Amino acid sequence: MTSKRSSTPQALPQLTEPVEDYLKAIYELEMRGGVAATSDVASRLDVAPASVTGMVRRLATQGYLDHVPYRGVQLTPLGRRAALRTIRRHRILESYLTSVLGYPWDLVHDEAERLEHAASDVLIERMAAALGHPVADPHGAPIPTPDGEVDERWHRSLADLMVGETARMVRVSDKNPSLLRYLAEIALQPGVEVTMLAKAPFDGPITLRVGDAEPVVGPNLAAQVLVESMPTFTPAPAPAMTPLGGKPRGRKPKGT
Amino acid sequence: MTSKRSSTPQALPQLTEPVEDYLKAIYELEMRGGVAATSDVASRLDVAPASVTGMVRRLATQGYLDHVPYRGVQLTPLGRRAALRTIRRHRILESYLTSVLGYPWDLVHDEAERLEHAASDVLIERMAAALGHPVADPHGAPIPTPDGEVDERWHRSLADLMVGETARMVRVSDKNPSLLRYLAEIALQPGVEVTMLAKAPFDGPITLRVGDAEPVVGPNLAAQVLVESMPTFTPAPAPAMTPLGGKPRGRKPKGT
DNA sequence: GGGAAAGTTTAGTGCCTGCTAAACTCGAAT
DNA sequence: ATTCGAGTTTAGCAGGCACTAAACTTTCCC
Predict the structure, then answer these.
(1) B131 Cβ contact list (under 8 Å, min separation 6)
(2) Which of A3, A205, B192, B203 has the greatest number of beta carbons closer than 10 A?
(3) Residue A69 approaches strand D within 7 Å at CB
(4) Does the beta-carbon distance from A119 to B114 stay under 8 Å?
């Protein structure tokens, strides 16, 4: 029935691994286009659409989401909190594994994907503290705060830059290892400045300047790399103690 | 006893969490008394005896163990390998969490208990490397090698020391947080020398010397602390090279 | 040696999560 | 407006893992 809802953030019950995966997937789908479709959830989680319907029904009765049959699915505030907790874990794990254990950034996603369900809050916070409370993971994704706030900002893609324009790379999906390996190869990582040198018409190849190199990439790749015009950028997995650059950061780590 | 088995390098399939727990529990029960009884497995895993029977039947058909109805259960070489892999993970995780992240040694068990099912081999080996390949965990339990060899040696308990005798503490179970907290309080940890000063008759209190202190403990506690006459002892989690975040909790290797 | 007691297994269920096949809905195109 | 197809849901089912209650062994004690 209707459980009493206080304004106090009640503790989330311990969720199963599949449930956390569903909520996370739905959250991420909602980021693009208000509601999540059954089939999108299905393909993201690599399960049959019918399975999604079943799970969604259960989650709806438990208050994690609203489901309008044939229409789609949307997280409730409770569901969003649960999703963001999982996402926080994931991104802190990625940051930790990358900067402390030297995990390559193209492999870190899968590892974090499993650990995020097993790590306790205490562990996650210890890792965050060890890193100096980073605000973004190695791929540039913002890390939600413990109480569920994220700075999910809108970003242009590299493909949208005008010829001659320079921007700073901010983010790329963590889900495509070969893309990540290639980006590492051409030194295109969050925080790096990139200039659009030339763009061949009809989705032709794109010439960039990254550091001293001038890699030529396809439009497909460029569309997946997000950039930011030029303002402040907080480097991803803050290498603990290195206070590189004295510029006043825009945001600073919350809490503390 | 030293188990040696490296002639069968076939990869273990990915096991479920409950399966790993069963195999680990059975392995540990076998250490004390050749076969594991259904009810012992049940109480260790906090599950109904009937559930054990069911699981055991499945694991037997899959070749992980032999089951003689009403008689007990014994791991096959395959099952032992699986168990030791999980135990290796557990102990390396405990070592890492303790010495790199400053996890208190009484809480580390539960965390490792969950992570051991999620961490990949690659991660575990990275952690082991970061620690300098420790041979024992923070509680003194030996860490199996990647190919399943352990140095499970027999140890006397502290309660067995003669009055006047000095020994080195080597090990204590990781499963009892309050015991561990108390041991930490009286500075009784693996590697430390301890002398039996007095033993009151009829299971009376036991007076020890640990460092400069002379704690008096119950026979119950003394029975759980394992000691070694005097030979070399290799300290558990060799302090990592870069302890970022954690306070230096790690013991220092003495002369050795 | 004959019962109890203790321990173990079978029988019967339930929940979770996934599947396939079939039915249904919605909206776009005719 | 009817139809058709893509997308979604229902129905029915399976496997993993847990439970209780009841039946069955083994052990132990008189």
Answers:
(1) B92, B95, B96, B99, B100, B237, B238, B240
(2) B192
(3) yes
(4) yes
Query: pLDDT tens digits for A122-173?
Result: 999 999 999 999 999 999 999 999 999 999 888 999 999 999 999 999 999 9
Using CB atoms, which residue from B100, B123, B242 is nearest to A111?
B123
Other beta carbons less than 10 A from residue A98's beta carbon: 21
Would you say residue B1 has pLDDT above 90? no
Chain A residue numbers touching B97 (CB-CB < 8 A): 123
Backbone torsion region of residue B30, taken as left when φ is above 0, otherwise alpha when ψ lies between -120 and 50, otherwise beta: alpha
User: Which residues contact residue A2 at a Cβ distance below 8 angstroms, ignoring those fewer than 6 apart?
Assistant: none
CB pairs under 8 A between A and B: 55
Reported as a single tens digit per residue, the pLDDT across A34-46 is 899 999 999 999 9
> Average pLDDT over chain B, rounded to whole?
88
- Whether the Cβ atoms of residue A113 and residue A106 lie closer than 8 Å to each other: no
Handedness of CA A63, A66, A70, A72 (dihedral sign): negative
DSSP string, B49-118: HHHHHHHHHHHHHTTSEEEETTTEEEE-HHHHHHHHHHHHHHHHHHHHHHHTT---TTTHHHHHHHHTTT
Expressed in percent and rounded to 5, the helix, strand and coil fractions of chain A are 35, 15, 50
Tell me, what DSSP letter sits at residue B198? E
Residues found in chain B: 256
